[in-house]
Amino acid sequence: MTDDTGLQVFADEAEDLLAVAEQALLNLEDISDVDETVGDLFRTFHTIKGAAGLFGLNAIVDFTHVVESLLGNIREGVIQVDEPMITLFLESRDHLEALVESTLSGEEQLDASLQKVDDDLINQLNKYLNIDSLVTEESESASLVAVETDTDGVVSNNWHISLRFGPNSFRNGMDPHSFIDYLAKIGDVKNLTLIDDAIPCWRDFDPESCFLGFEIILHAPDTNKSAIEEVFEFVQDDCKISILPPHSHIEAYIKMIESLPEEDMRIGDILVACGALTESEKDDVLNAQDKLTDDAIVNATDQAVAPLGKVAVEQNVVQQEVVDAAVKKQNTLKQQRANAQQTIRVNANKLEDLVNLVGELVIGSANSELNARRLADPQLSEAMENLLRLVEEVRDTALGLRMVQIGETFNRFKRVVREVSRDLGKDIQLIISGADTELDKTLVEKIGDPLMHLVRNSIDHGIESPEVRDALGKPSQGTVNLDAFHESGSVVIQIRDDGGGLSKQKVLDKAIEKGLVQENHQLTDSEIYRLIFEAGFSTADKVSNLSGRGVGMDVVRRNIEALRGHVEIESEEGKGTTISIRLPLTLAIIDGFQVRVGDSQYIVPLDMVEECIELNDSLRGKDEQANYINLRGEILPFMRLSESFGGSTSAEKNSRDNIIVVQFSGTKVGFVVDELLGENQTVIKPLGKIFQNLKGISGATILGSGEVAMIIDIPEMVNKVIESPSNSNVGSHLIH
Amino acid sequence: MLRHEENDSTPSDHCKLVIDEELTIYVIDGIKEELSKELDIYNNFDLNLAAIEEFDSAGVQLLISFTQEIKRLDKTFTLSSASPVVIKLFDTYGLSDYFNLAKIA
Question: Does residue A149 carry a pLDDT above 50?
């Protein structure tokens, strides 16, 4: 492996890890199990640091080290996570991403702007780390006058080390006093209390076994936990060691006390006696202890005890379901990790090639099938049948390889929502569902930007400010839902907000003002809403830096349509807006239904075909020219494809007409064709630039015979049928 | 090694004990055994550790346990003298008061 490919692997891994880190950081805000998440984060950054170290990427190592230190302190309970800190971590994560990118481009030195960000962030991170040491210095003098300066942690600015030596310590040549002597080298042992409670009574006492314990107060402001841990490295297997950093949380003391064999009251007194805790802190700790053991309800009015509710839950005492939820979450995380290990990285181009080849294979096999049918050899037909089935399976598997879950794309929006809503002073939660819905990787990549725009729009224009929401009697926290699901051969992505909704009148006024519609034009609701996707349309009263410049929605629509997708909008004024994006499952190969109109053959995506019927007089009714039929009591508008695509119908006046009924987003229409040719595996070939503006055609395919068949753009055609003037009455009934 | 002080002239329920050279994990078992025997006979103990050259935590632990037993049996125990190594370790462990070392010094 050359250095370059090694670097690429590092960058890929770092990218994955940073994605995980982002997720964890965002989770940090809303889960109760902070410890686990911080632990994960710590390991994630640590892994990046380690890998970067292998490649000698010092900039990354140095930066990650600071991040890691702060996370380490959080993990040990020295510092509490707060919102600005999470933001800082997120920024650090972004910066790391930039650092990784810059190393990929082979630059030895950071460029000036990166260096500045680097310095800035390190300064900010250090501030958190330094504040800690600052407090240490301050409270040294403060503790003299017995004033509590730090409400979060205990007053003591010293390390507390609790040791219980194992019975074999003496026999193994480990004498406690040698460790304590050594400890004196890294700090000042302020107090040492020997715990003799474990020594049995004289008759049962085995003098060769060690029953000693120690509570040690160590003043060592310049050291870190691992340095202290190193002192006890040799006995750690045989000895119970708890090391609490200065200003540890009361909860940390509770945990320690619980882990000790002596009675809680006794330990409490010892801790006070040796100066680890003040009298009132001890009471807090022991009160909390009582609460835990008595299985009592945490008294919310008792300030000192309030944060211990969390401990109570952790201790499996209060709410079983909370614990269950945490366990479940842990399991799914583990599961995800396990899944991640089962994947292999494949170059996207290789997959692309494979899918292209499969496409050729499909066309080739269609050709063979045609010839086999012509020869009418039973054995050949049977072999062909088998081959076709296999080709179909290969096709599905190959396309399946490119399928990815949309969840990752969705998760990116968590951060967008968090940041944008804060910028705007709004309180918005993002609810994601259907994150495991799969669709083609190309689609996932290309849908990101339009989705981003729509989500921002919802936050910016949709959701009102908390004050307005309060006044309207809505919950002050707005909600944006991102849903994905499969529906009849397509993937639907919905962005739903519970904001102000679209004002029909406002949209219409604006459209008239912009000259997009005539003043006296009658429009249906959905037609009005669709106007916002027109170029140059924006109803926002004020232009923010997020959206409102009127260059968004039309681009969104164009991008989605370029993916053979379709976007529609539903809204209720005052209640909210739902935007649905429909995308084909894949861009490469679909099951098609082949029909003939005139001399040409066309393909209708099979997923959209509802049924095929013969168009006879009983369906048509009396009016020969009517373009709707009565389909089992339903009004079904239809159109002759020959009208749109040309082709002589007069020559075949006497042959029977067939109608294929298609459904698209809840609307059914019929198309009259000359002949139904049956199913066909359709390899979609994009149309050249010249044909891009062709309405009603979304692509082309090559048939087994070598002929070209056009793929009908059903959404476009459905709209055309509904909007055709003679159908406007029928159409308006059909729109939901 | 535990022995009675020469010229022990104390009353019959009183004994003056001396431990020479070392009080460490290597000899601790024997010392405990002998101390147990003395415990059965006497009520008041006087222990001289002035000749101790090697002393370790096992020794400390034995002395603590012995003191506890003395208290339980309502007997008395005084440390009459201690060598520098003993004093130093007691000091490290914060046991000077416990064994009334100040009086010795």
Answer: no
For residues A475 and A469, is the Cβ–Cβ distance under 8 A? yes
Contacts of A91 (CB under 8 A, 6+ apart): A121
Instruction: Report the length, in residues, of chain A.
Output: 736
Q: Is B100 on the interface with A (CB under 8 A)?
A: no
Give the pLDDT confidence score for residue A386 in this predicted structure.
Answer: 92
Of A146-150, A392-396, A615-619, A722-726, highest mean pLDDT: A392-396
pLDDT of residue A623: 62
End-to-end CA distance of chain B: 24
Strands A478-487 and A490-497: antiparallel
B57/A207 Cβ within 8 A: no
The whole-number pLDDT of residue A294 equals: 45
CATH number attached to the domain at B2-104: 3.30.750.24
pLDDT tens digits along A524-561:
777 788 788 876 666 554 444 444 444 467 778 888 87
What's the CA gap between A414 and A302, in Å, rounded?
35
Q: Across chain B, which distance is largest between two alpha carbons, in Å?
A: 36
Q: Count CA atoms within 13 Å of residue A246 on its CB side.
A: 24
- Chain B's closest residue to A203, CA to CA, is B36
Token pair belonging to B32: 């405990």
Q: Which amino acid would we find at residue A473?
A: G
Q: Are A722 and A667 in contact (CB under 8 A)?
A: yes
Work out the angle at residue A431's Cα, subtended by the Cα atoms of residues A425 and A436, and round it to the nearest 5 degrees.
145
| Dihedral sign, Cα of residue A217, residue A221, residue A223, residue A225 | positive
Backbone angles phi, psi at A673, to 5 degrees: -130, 170
pTM for the model stands at: 0.47
Residue A286 contacts residue A265 (beta carbons within 8 Å): yes
What integer pLDDT is reported at residue A439 of this predicted model?
A: 83
In this complex, is the C-beta atom of B26 within 8 Å of any C-beta atom belonging to chain A? no
pLDDT digits (tens, 9 = 90+) for A183-195: 888 888 888 888 8
**Owner of token pair 């739902």:** A578
Partner residue facing B69 (CB), from A170, A202, A211: A202
Residue A7 contacts residue A107 (beta carbons within 8 Å): no
Distance CA A671, CA A675 (A): 11
Shortest CA distance to A352 belongs to which of A444, A424, A440, A262? A440
The one-letter amino acid code at A502 reads L
Average pLDDT over residues A561-565: 78
- What value of ipTM does the predicted structure carry? 0.90
Instruction: Determine the Cα–Cα distance for residues A563 and A553; give it in Å rounded to an integer.
Output: 16
H-type alpha helices, A514-640 = 525-530, 553-562, 617-620
Interface check for B57 against chain A (CB to CB < 8 A): the answer is yes
Distances (CA, A) of A39 to A25, A51, A325, A432, B11: 11, 18, 18, 25, 68
- pLDDT, tens digit, 9 for 90 and up, residues A4-30: 667 777 888 888 888 888 888 887 776
CA A213 distance to own-chain centroid: 49
Q: Which residues of B touch A175 (CB under 8 A)?
A: 56-58
Residues in chain B: 105
Q: How many helices (H) and strands (E) does chain A have?
A: 24, 21
* Residue A376 token pair: 């009418």
The one-letter amino acid code at A500 reads: G
The tokens of A433 are what? Answer: 């569902």
pLDDT at site B60: 92
d(CA A713, CA A645): 12
- Using CA atoms, how far residue A318 sits from A33, A410, A722, in Å, is 15, 34, 60
β-pairing, A609-615 vs A628-631, is unpaired
Contacts of B58 in chain A (CB under 8 A): 170, 175, 207-208, 210
- pLDDT value for A390: 92
b/e burial code for range A625-639 (CB count within 10 A of at least 16 → b): eebbbebeeeebbbb
